[in-house]
Amino acid sequence: MDDKEIEKKLQDAWEETSKIQPKDKVEKSWQDFSSRTFNRKKKPIKPWHYAAAAVLVTFLSIGGLRMYNNSSFESSIASNINIIENPGNQNKTVYLPDGSLVELEPNSQLEFSDNFKKNRKVRVKGEAFFRVEKDKDHPFQVSCKTTTTTVLGTEFTVKEEISNSVSVQLYEGSIQLNVKDSINNWILSPGEKFVYNTNQLTITAFERFKDFNKKPLKEVINYIQTNYNYKITFPQELLQKQVTIRIRKKETLSNITQILSEIYNLNSYRDENIKEITFK
């Protein structure tokens, strides 16, 4: 293969990988590169020229991929995208760079950018619960299908339904909801559920607490074990004693443990390795 053939192939590759750039910019950059690489006096091409060209073509390809990624996840996000999936059968806890907590349900996916602290926007596929750190200068936004939930600091659940709808349940704080191509927005209060699909939009009340009114302590223990996937060991003589307690459905396990310890004047010991909490 002579010099002209090599130059022609490299130019074709250069233009192909640079389609996303303005044409005049591509032509100028090629002229600069070719003038340095291909001696017009037709001196023999050194082996390193091939390596240099390969490196440059590879670099342009990577740059093109990054620009595609940027535009594919909200035009306002100008950074690489992190994707976290939960293929298992139990909730997966994720801590975002700003300290916000996400409980990702099975078969769900979370996406956020590398510059998340300055651009607190995430996308959910499936279902996730959020406990958002407050930051008045950087609102927290969750996109799911055609809806966007905007918050400053609160606790809520976003769920992508099979019926091509999206539901949002607010446990604490306040959130604003927007729908694509709509000029309206909706403000939710704690205990309200927002459901949207292409045909209708509804806001209804839901029960965000679990109440135990003079129930055996054993029922409370069973509720905790079922919803938090921890084994709870309590003194046998207390299990049948009646208790009246209200538990917020998305309350942290640490807070529930502390409340029970204070009620019964016991110490609790948590073993993360075997997922067990023992009261003594």
UniProtKB/TrEMBL annotation:
Coiled coil: none
GO molecular function: sigma factor antagonist activity
Key word Transmembrane present: yes
Record keyword Transmembrane helix present: yes
Sequence intervals crossing the membrane: 48-68
InterPro entries: FecR, FecR_C, Ferrdict_sens_TM
Keyword annotations of the record: Membrane, Transmembrane, Transmembrane helix
Name by which UniProt lists this protein: FecR family protein
